[in-house]
């Protein structure tokens, strides 16, 4: 089928199945050879109890909560550090900008970590990735807590980020293993909200830990949460179909069962899906290129909040670290509002159109982003010019809510659009390019944002971000009009 003729025949709940691990959507390659034919090894029947889709609801809920908890902890670890920056400056006798390096390098690590998730998940299964990456993440967090100089803190935080990275993306694959497309909307939407909710909670935890126990307790608190997730994850069972069927075939002593994806095959897939193809798509596909930069810019601005806004609020209102931490809860509130809006649009718009017309064109997925593209620059101008002592603090905090809501709506909308446009085969590559650039910009923005705020002041510094957002805001509208033409010309 040509790209030009592609349409979507499902609702939002079926579209988050193709992340870096391809969401278990690739038909299993495990085979069993009979005397006449080679047939795919599949479930014993629709009621097969080994099929995660047939597990009891409590069991599926447990296997949803653990990846979500892991993702929250790994994203909490990013911004829990920011309230400790001033203490790091004092402890290690470094500048504020240098003290932000452990924060930036952790985000940088999050960008590299997901590249490892795909081949490991396809070869060893979801469970092994969780039970390997989280403990290693915890060990490097322990190293960060014991660091005696800024260099060791930067290095340990970077590697902690690398091993936290798989947990930020692999959960969507697990959820796709557990739920039918019609049942995925709620758990998947809430899981996708973790990159927004985790960092929103973290500054509050970090502030009270730093004020009462010292900066090292931002790391100890992260370590305690990681240890709790590890213990809770131990009873997990494998959810990936290929791995389950391969292991079951071996238990049944079926010598003709294919061993599944080998390490060499997984590495080849890694080179193609995680490196070569994403780069090619980023350079040759306008849809991927513009979407990639738009989402990455929004994500970078989100992490700029954590680096710069504590200084802004402390200077304007005399807030302490704890009070600043409380204001970041507004980002979590915005993400929750966005989740409710997305679910409502799915239920009352997307599903209705699918039921009435049998399909929905990819461009209609951009409704959410078209609305949100206006919210981001408005919220940034709002924050920049009201975060001052003569205006009540609730005004910039409400601007944070609007910013977070719009940011998540744009992210979710474009994930849907890319999924509809490129299908199961190429969505993973498109999202890999997106994820990597997202974390690269997220790591670099905090390193220079303080210079901007100190140089030109809160109003104009935030306005620079607002103008950047305004410059990118036509993208969903352009795709809505010219998207069919671009899809028709696509090589993918």
Summed up:
This protein is mainly alpha-helical and 492 residues long. The protein contains 17 helices and 2 strands.
Per DSSP, the total helix count is 17
Provide the residue-averaged pLDDT: 85
Beta strand count: 2
Strand content: under 5%
Structurally, the number of domains stands at 1
Oligomer: single chain
Report how far apart the termini are: 11 Å
CATH architecture: Up-down Bundle
SSE order, as H and E?
EEHHHHHHHHHHHHHHHHH
- Largest beta-sheet details: 2 strands, antiparallel
The CATH superfamily title: MFS general substrate transporter like domains
Spatial shape:
globular
**What are the segments in which pLDDT stays under 50 over at least 5 consecutive residues?**
1-5, 16-36
* Helix/strand structural class: mainly alpha
Helix content: over 70%
Look up the CATH topology.
Growth Hormone, Chain: A
C-alpha-based Rg, rounded: 23 Å
Identify the strand order in the major beta sheet. Answer: 1-2
CATH class: Mainly Alpha
Note down, in words, how this protein is organized.
The protein has 17 helices and two strands. It is 75% helix and 1% strand. The longest helix has 79 residues, at 394-472. A hairpin with a 4-residue loop joins β1 and β2. α1 runs antiparallel to α6 (150-178), α8 packs across α9 (216-233) and α11 (263-284) crosses α12 (286-317). With 492 residues, it is an all-alpha fold.
């Amino acid at each position: 089928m040509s790209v030009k003729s592609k349409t979507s025949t499902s609702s939002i709940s079926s579209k988050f199945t193709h992340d870096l691990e391809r969401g278990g959507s690739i038909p299993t390659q495990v085979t069993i050879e009979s005397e006449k034919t080679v047939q795919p090894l599949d479930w014993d029947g629709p009621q097969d109890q080994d099929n995660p889709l047939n597990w009891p609801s409590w069991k599926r809920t447990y296997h949803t909560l653990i990846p979500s908890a892991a993702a929250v902890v790994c994203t909490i670890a990013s911004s829990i550090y920011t309230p400790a920056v001033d203490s790091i400056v004092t402890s290690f006798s470094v500048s504020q900008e240098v003290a932000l390096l452990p924060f930036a390098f952790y985000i940088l690590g999050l960008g590299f970590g997901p590249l490892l998730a795909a081949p490991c998940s396809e070869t060893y299964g979801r469970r092994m990735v969780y039970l390997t990456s989280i403990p290693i993440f915890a060990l490097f967090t322990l190293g960060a807590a014991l660091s005696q100089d800024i260099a060791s803190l930067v290095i340990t935080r970077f590697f902690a980020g690398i091993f936290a990275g798989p947990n930020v993306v692999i959960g969507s694959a697990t959820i796709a293993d557990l739920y039918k497309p019609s049942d995925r909307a709620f758990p998947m939407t809430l899981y996708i909200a973790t990159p927004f909710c985790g960092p929103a909670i973290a500054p509050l935890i970090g502030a009270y830990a730093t004020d009462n126990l010292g900066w090292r307790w931002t790391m100890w608190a992260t370590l305690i949460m990681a240890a709790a997730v590890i213990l809770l994850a131990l009873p997990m069972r494998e959810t990936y179909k290929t791995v389950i069927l391969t292991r079951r075939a071996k238990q049944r002593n079926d010598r003709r069962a294919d061993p599944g994806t080998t390490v060499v095959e997984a590495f080849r897939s890694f080179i193609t899906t995680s490196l070569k193809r994403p780069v090619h798509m980023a350079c040759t596909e306008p849809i991927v290129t513009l979407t990639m930069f738009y989402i990455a810019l929004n994500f970078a601005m989100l992490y700029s909040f954590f680096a710069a806004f504590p200084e802004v609020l402390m200077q304007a209102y005399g807030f302490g670290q704890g009070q600043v931490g409380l204001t970041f809860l507004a980002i979590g509130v915005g993400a929750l509002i966005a989740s409710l809006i997305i679910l409502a649009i799915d239920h009352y718009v997307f599903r209705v159109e699918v039921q009435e017309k049998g399909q929905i064109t990819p461009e209609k997925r951009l409704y959410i982003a078209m609305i949100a593209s206006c919210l981001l620059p408005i919220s940034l101008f709002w924050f920049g010019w009201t975060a001052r002592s003569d205006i009540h603090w609730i005004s910039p905090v409400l601007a944070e809510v609007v910013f977070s809501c719009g940011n998540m709506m744009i992210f979710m909308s474009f994930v849907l659009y890319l999924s509809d446009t490129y299908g199961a085969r190429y969505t993973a590559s498109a999202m890999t390019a997106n994820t990597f650039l997202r974390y690269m910009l997220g790591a670099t923005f905090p390193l220079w944002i303080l210079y901007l705020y100190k140089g030109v002041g809160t109003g104009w510094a935030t306005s620079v971000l607002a103008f950047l957002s305004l410059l990118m805001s036509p993208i969903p509208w352009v795709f809505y009009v010219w998207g069919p033409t671009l899809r028709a010309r696509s090589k993918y």
